[in-house]
Here is the input.
Amino acid sequence: MALACVATRASSGVDAPAVTVEVHLSNGLPAFSLVGLPEASVKEAKERVRSALINAGFEFPMRRITVNLAPADLPKQGGRYDLPIAIGILAASKQIPPQSIEQHEFVGELALSGHVRGCQGILPVIVAASQVNSRLVLPIDNRADAELVGYQQVLFATHLQSLAAYLHGQSELPGIDLGLEWITPASNNEANTHCLSEVVGQQHAKMALEIAAAGGHNLMMLGPPGTGKTMLATRMMQLLPPLDYTEALEVASIHSVAGQNMLPQQFYQRPFRSPHHTSSAISLVGGGAIPKPGEISLAHRGVLFLDEVAEFPRKVLDCLREPMETGEVSISRAAAKLNFLCRFQLVAAMNPSPCGDVDNARASNEQILRYLSKLSGPFLDRFDLTIDVPKLPLGALNSCDTQAETSAVIAQRVHAAREIQLARSGTLNSELTGKQLKEEGRFNAEDLLFLEESVNKLGLSVRSYHRLQRVARTIADLQQQQDVSRPHIAQALGYRAIDRLLASLKQY
Here is the structure.
């Protein structure tokens, strides 16, 4: 019986479920049937495989060929099934030894000449193959992905002829260089080209940026045009520590699925995404006919910066509310439901009025309130800190501040505060649950009562009550103090600029 089974892997979000390509050759009129829930790009594999086999010097069987992609209920898309289908036909027709494909997995797209082309979303395939310790054959174009993972059982194919020679035992396929020098977080840091010392003044905003970086808090900056909001946001990346290996692999897998190749030098760098305010909900959250990760997933373990956040459509911003709380986004379609991680840190910047400044007489209080109402209350509730970035006083631009702290100095304090948090509860303060805050927050009962009274006077929600506790805990960690005191809570309450602005506008 002319039957062959070849192992490969599909793409399902950031997962790579195993797929078995079953090839059966039977007597009858020559035909080529492909079943197993293939999409249009997979059905076209019949013509690519036929031409590739003939042009590579192999015999294409003039028999009835049936190819089944199992499991049949898993949608398949893309050209990654070309190579396993071709190998299955060669094994079923005895042109290569059938036993040679055991313990192997094949992924790759074929050119009509028989060359093997690279595919998107290969990184999850390599990770999944490494977990089961199988030998994986990939296109040579995906070598960079394999080097990121460092899995030694990866082989690279360039053409069907060289792959057939390997399966016959006549030659070897190239693999990862054993002398490869692995990247370390220390050697992968980006050059300090954007330093906080370059930002003139704005000490209050710099302190808020340090607190946000230390605790992983969401930050919103309010201020007139040209006060340095964007400069502050872009310099936040210099304060954050590099990713560890597990986090870096998560980030690289998401970018691989999205079709964005990551250079080895970028492996440990936290992502910084800054989408334009004309972005749609699908581009921001993810989705599409074939669901792909959006900007919030591409910013996983990094920073998502929304400049001019009030110009984003309100329904687009409200799509962020649930992912900001859960750390993942679920995209449901008729064929499948995919989950993408999106544990990002949100930094937003906006003008306090449509004219740019609250003191501008061209805008009335009603117009300013209408402008601010583009941001819903529940969305504003997700920000731990909202600060004013005011205009600089006269003479500040020409002053020479030699005492301004550099990003490297502030980053050391941020790193020390994060080490305290991870040693205490295993997570950053922004991710502490209500139960953890009670057990590990080290708050005084009287101080908590003071905080509750303040929250009630400001008309804040219970979510804001817990977020203020997390901010106060981070401030205490930056000061190397075990207990949270009243000054820490008072400082956390000072970072509520949007609430003060709304309250002042409603008085008139």
User: Anything to note?
Assistant: The two ends are 87 Å apart (CA to CA). Residues 407-425 form the longest helix (19 residues). DSSP finds 21 helices and 18 strands in the chain.
